[in-house]
Amino acid sequence: MQTRLDFAAADKETYRVMAAVETHIAKGTLDHLLKEMVRLRASQINGCAFCLDMHVAEARKAGESERRLATVSAWRETPFFTCLLYTSDAADERSSV
After folding, report:
1. Which residues neighbour 37 within 8 Å (Cβ) at sequence distance 6 or greater?
2. What per-residue string of b and e applies to 27-59 under the rule 16 or more CB within 10 Å gives b?
3. What's 4-50 look like in SS3?
4. Is 90 in contact with 81 (CB distance < 8 Å)?
5. Contact present, 36 and 58 (Cβ < 8 Å)
6. How many CA atoms, within 13 angstroms, populate the side-chain half-sphere of residue 84?
7. HSE-up of 75 (CA within 13 Å, CB side)?
8. How far apart, in whole angstroms, are the C-alpha atoms of residue 33 and residue 63?
9. What is the pLDDT of residue 86?
10. How far apart are CA 2 and CA 65, in angstroms?
11. Exposure on the CB side of residue 83, measured as CA atoms within 13 A
């Protein structure tokens, strides 16, 4: 198996900022399940397989339905995502590179 990039060592400043953002999200008032869905969607946008796997597992553990997990990548086309997720997702998509 090929060794994954150690992105914390490769770009320490970016990793520091990402860690600060995660700390801010974790301390926020959003529901835990919603936080995981936002993290999952951000990981889809960023194309990080490791993070996708982690956030799907966390969302399942928090009680997310398989239906929503399977369709979060097409949330605009589904009738079962809340306005809060729309807002959170749109912010992630605008800020992605």
Report:
1. 59, 64, 68, 72, 85, 88
2. eeeeeeebbbbbbbbbbbeeeeeeebeebbebb
3. CCCHHHHCHHHHHHHHHHHHHHHHCCCCHHHHHHHHHHHHHHHCCHH
4. no
5. yes
6. 9
7. 22
8. 7
9. 57
10. 33
11. 0
DSSP state of 62: T
Output the six-digit token pair for 71.
């369709």
Rounded Cα gap, residues 24 and 11, in angstroms: 20
**pLDDT tier at 97 (50, 70, 90 boundaries)?**
very low
pLDDT in tens, 42-64: 888 878 888 899 999 999 999 99
Q: Quote the tokens at residue 8.
A: 């914390």
**Residue 95 corresponds to which tokens in the numbers above?**
């800020």
Q: Model pTM?
A: 0.70
Ramachandran assignment for 6, one of left (phi > 0), alpha (psi -120 to 50 degrees), beta (any other): beta
Amino acid (1-letter code) at residue 54: M
